[in-house]
């Protein structure tokens, strides 16, 4: 498994990260023994990047047990920001919550430091200056080594980077965002921003909550997938007419090249500017299937068809600006005054 740099510093992570939201999760997760076995199988395969969050129930506690004796091999990432209690300081990106959440995560993980501390979602009610300063304090105290953003609008991410530069504070090393063959909207604003600012992309939901496994069809709720067990508001981003059309294309292409739809969807990520892809599993068989995606090569003609079938629709101002840029560079036929 390839090891890549996340951000401009010395942080090195594997191209596949192991997401642990399923660990200890009721109804659609896995039990503690299975979760620990999943971590060890992933580490044996050459992975080093574990992703959890304080809002994932028992996940941090189980991760802590799983990496005991292996801590030096693991880049351990967790998140804070989603509600974990009824109080105002039990959520968000204010100083009070970030500090208390960090202490709680350190305790549950059984570690002295967190390698990557993600802001789980942008908190628009808290000034970015407060968030950036609080994260910088945690870095200076040695409790956190790197900080990152998750689920930020592009302009807010750029503003946070500017605030860090102005204050001389720790900068985000990357963005964790939903990116897959159904949801490619990060390509409009975020990917150019990440490239220009030197940040890495860690993609979550590469299988679109199971839509790209080939198991989900309209009107059915199959067992073994998150969408089959429960639905949350943002599942509408993938479980729609466009999502089912893309899933059908993926099933067809996977059959053509002789792999599973999930493996094809994960292999597609390697063709994109993604530093690390978060995979999730409830069983060893699911993990092995995901890991086998590293052996899948997508033929150029199949990749071209997938990209064409899933490309973003034209939009303003992006498409307009792209056309005019072509005129300015003389690479696209234009109009003359």
TrEMBL record:
Gene3D superfamilies to which the protein is assigned, alphabetical: NADP-dependent oxidoreductase domain
Alphabetically ordered keywords of this record: Oxidoreductase
Repeat is among the record's keywords: no
Entry keyword Metal-binding: no
Pfam short name (any one): Aldo_ket_red
Ranges for domain NADP-dependent oxidoreductase: 16-309
Protein name according to UniProt: Aldo/keto reductase
